[in-house]
Amino acid sequence: MEEMQKQRIYLAALVYNRTGVLLRVAGLFARRGYNVVSLTVSETESPEFSRMTIVSDVEPYKFTMVEQQLSRLEDVIKVARLDAEHLISSELLLIKVHALNKDRTRVLKTINGFGAKVKDIGHTTITAELTGLSSLIDTFIGKMTKYGIIELSRSGLTALSSGDKSIKGDE
Fold this sequence. Notes:
The longest helix has 13 residues, at 101-113. Helix content is 26%, strand content 41%. It has helices at residues 21-31, 63-71, 101-113, 134-144; strands at residues 7-16, 35-43, 49-58, 76-81, 87-98, 117-121, 125-132, 149-154, 158-161. The strands form two sheets. Strands 5, 6, 7, 8 and 9 form a five-stranded antiparallel sheet that branches. A four-stranded antiparallel sheet has the order 2-3-1-4, covered by helices on one side. By secondary structure, it is α+β, with helices and mostly antiparallel strands. It folds into two domains: 7-82, ACT domain (Alpha-Beta Plaits, 2-Layer Sandwich); 88-158, ACT-like. Chain A, domain 2 (Alpha-Beta Plaits, 2-Layer Sandwich), CATH 3.30.70.1150.
């Protein structure tokens, strides 16, 4: 039997800012065999709440089921489906690359060409920060590969719906 084509889904969840909430949300995805591509979480403007942005690849017929199962978790206040076409999103990358004397100028030109910021310059390395769409981050990483990536850290996608709507429902 052929495996169904998976589709990328984007969900936002407003949750209580309590110990164990992240574990329960991640556990829900793991128990059901859904791969989490990206999961970001942070306090909202109100410290009693956190907002999660979850990106996952699931079969289309399971999309509503994932949303409902997430909504039923005890500490989840609200779950909102984020439409990929009406998504305001960004990702953060910190990347450290080799920058020996002969490459240092080229590394700096590449960083500047992408609008990234130099965060640290070592004797043989340069660390840069870039924020933007995942596709921009991927392209930047590809360009930096030729210098030799020492390490990198990506935040994962964080997103809001465009327009006047909010997860809280007040407009």
